[in-house]
Amino acid sequence: MYEISYSKEKNRIYIKISEDLCDAEEKKYIDDMIHCLNNVRPNFTVCANLKSCGISVLHNSGSFEVVRNYGREKKIYKVAIVLNNEIFNANLANSFNKLNDTFKNIEDAEKYLDS
Fold first, then answer.
1. I need a labelling partner for 72 at 20 to 30 A (CA). Which of 15, 42, 90, 113 fits?
2. For residue 12, what are the β-bridge partners?
3. What's this model's pTM, rounded to 2 decimal places?
């Protein structure tokens, strides 16, 4: 299950993924993200809450390369990822080494993106 929203005021995409995504949900997520990216202005930011997502979503992050590439084309400025630290430290440090920053909570992620 996932939710995607866009704040025009902040020029920010909000993503929340909880649990695992089946193949059909992954495809729909990619389609929904491309649609959302069509509406952003240059220098947009992304706040992704992955704290409750299934570990397989994080390990399959290569599936979302098309979204990351399109985000770069649309001039992404900053990304903040909210993760469960235990999962991140144990399994994913290398997968997320190119992200701007990771956080324990949404509030800290928002502060970072607003700066």
1. 90
2. 7, 45
3. 0.83
Torsional class of 76: left (φ above 0), alpha (ψ -120 to 50), beta (otherwise)? beta
What is the biggest distance separating any 2 CA atoms in the chain, rounded to whole angstroms?
36
Sign of CA dihedral 53, 106, 78, 73: positive
Taking the C-alpha atoms of residue 91 and residue 54, their distance in angstroms, rounded to an integer, is 12
CA dihedral 60, 64, 66, 67 (to 10 degrees): -170
Dist. CA 33–CA 21, nearest whole Å: 14
pLDDT in tens, 61-73: 667 889 989 999 9
* Tokens coding 52: 């409750």
Rounded Cα distance between 113 and 45, Å, is 7
